Amino acid sequence: MKLYGYPGALHIHSSYSDGTAKIPRIAKAARDAGLSWILISDHDTLAGLENREAGWYDGTAVMVGYEVTPPDSHYLVAGLEELLPPSLPSGELVEAVREKGGRGFVLHPDEKAGSYFKPPFPWKDRSVRGFDGIEIWNYMSQWTEGITERNRYARFLCPLLAVKGPSRDVLDWWDELLAEGERVSAIGGLDVHGTIHQLWGRFPLQVFPYRRQFGTIVNHIVLRRPLSQRWSEACGQILDSLAEGHSYLAYEALGKARGFRFLAERDGQQWTLGEEVPAGGPVRLGVHCPRWARIHIVYNGRTLRRTWGQILQSEVQQPGAYRVEAYRFGRPWLYSNPIYLAKRELSPPERRRYTPPARKPWE
Ligand SMILES: [Zn+2]
Ligand SMILES: [Zn+2]
C-alpha cells in the first residue's frame, strides 16, 4: 500500500498570546526544520486567523486554531473560526466544538507539578467524552515539572535532560478509553513559546527557540493520497488525520521517525493507523521502524509482543485497539495511533462510532 507521510508540529504559541515570535517567523522556523505543517494555538484568541496569517509559507501549511484555557481543562480547538469562552465547563466545551464541526484535543491532562513561575493546569474531569484526541506528550510541562530556582540554569541550557516521555497516568487513561471502545487519538504537543529568560538577571537567553523545538516532538500524519495543494482541502486532510489517528508522534531528538509504518493485513487487503479492520479471520500486524528500536505492540494497556530491531510482526484476532510504542537509548521515542479490529458480532446500539461533522467550517 502506498502511503504518504507529512511531519508537523502543534501546540505552538505566538506573540498573539504569550509566545515571543510572530507567525511568519515561526513559519520560517518550521520550514527550516523540514516540517510540512504546523498548527498555531494561542490562548483564547484567533488573531492569527483574523489577520490572515494562516496559509502556505513556501510549501509549509500554517494553520491557526486556539487553546481554550479554563483553569481545569486546557483544550486545543482547530477548524473553527469562532472562539468558545473559557467559562464553559469542560463537558460543554467538548460538546460545543463537536457540534460546530471543529476538532478538539485535551491538552496536558497529566500536568502535575507547577514550577516557581507557573501553576499546573491538568484536565480535571476524566468522565468527559467526545473529544477527538489527547496530548499524551507535552514537551513544556515535562520541562517545567520539578524546575526550581536552583536547577533552572541547567535546564535552560540543556532542556533535553528533563524530557522523560508520556506519563503512565496519561497512557493508562488513553488505554482505558480505547478499551471502552472510544476512538481517541494521541498527539504530541510542544507548548512552545520561544521563552526568553534573563540569565543572572542580565543576559537574555532564548530557552526554547522555535527552530530547536521543531526538531523535538513531531507528529507525522499518514495519508493514502498526497497532501492537497489546495488550502482548504489540505487543512481538512491534516486535521482529520490528527483527529482520526492517521498519525504517530516521535521525540526526534532521539532519531528521525519519517517512514515508520504500522499495517494490518488480511487476504491481500491492508489497513493502517486509525483505520478499522472489519470483523473476520486473523489479521497480520506489521511494524516497520526507520531506525533500530525496542518495538512493542500494545493491546489493552499491555505489551503483546516486542522485539529489538526494525521489524515486528504479530498475528492477532481479538477485537480492540492495537498500538505501537518504540524506545531508543532506553528512552521513549515513538507512539503510534491504533489500528482497530472490529468486534465480531456487533449489534448497532453497541457500536459507538464517531460521526464526522456534516460540514467542515473551513470550506
Ligand atoms: Zn495549556
Ligand atoms: Zn499552551
What does this molecule look like?
This protein is an alpha+beta fold and 363 residues long. The protein has two domains: 4-254, TIM Barrel (Alpha-Beta Barrel), CATH 3.20.20; 261-350, Immunoglobulin-like (Sandwich). The chain has helices at residues 23-32, 47-50, 90-99, 139-144, 152-157, 168-180, 210-213, 231-244; strands at residues 4-12, 37-43, 55-57, 60-68, 75-78, 103-106, 133-138, 185-189, 196-199, 203-206, 217-223, 247-251, 261-266, 269-272, 276-277, 283-299, 302-316, 320-328, 331-336, 339-341. The strands form two sheets. It has an 18-stranded mixed beta sheet that branches. A hairpin with a 2-residue loop joins strand 13 (261-266) and strand 14 (269-272). The structure holds zinc ion (ZN) (2 copies).
Question: What ligand molecules are bound, each kind once?
Answer: zinc ion
Task: Name the poorly predicted regions.
Answer: none
Global morphology: globular
How widely separated are the two ends? 29 Å
CATH class membership of the largest domain: Alpha Beta
Structural class of the secondary elements?
Answer: alpha+beta
Q: What structural keywords apply?
A:
363 residues; alpha+beta; Immunoglobulin-like; 2 domains; 18-stranded mixed sheet; 8 helices; globular; binds zinc ion
Chart the SSEs and their pairings.
Layout: E1 4-12, H1 23-32, E2 37-43, H2 47-50, E3 55-57, E4 60-68, E5 75-78, H3 90-99, E6 103-106, E7 133-138, H4 139-144, H5 152-157, H6 168-180, E8 185-189, E9 196-199, E10 203-206, H7 210-213, E11 217-223, H8 231-244, E12 247-251, E13 261-266, E14 269-272, E15 276-277, E16 283-299, E17 302-316, E18 320-328, E19 331-336, E20 339-341
Parallel strand pairs: 1-2, 2-4, 6-7, 7-8, 15-20
Antiparallel strand pairs: 1-11, 3-4, 4-5, 5-6, 9-10, 11-12, 12-19, 13-14, 13-16, 16-17, 16-18, 18-19, 18-20
The site of one zinc ion (ZN) has 6 residues, from loops.
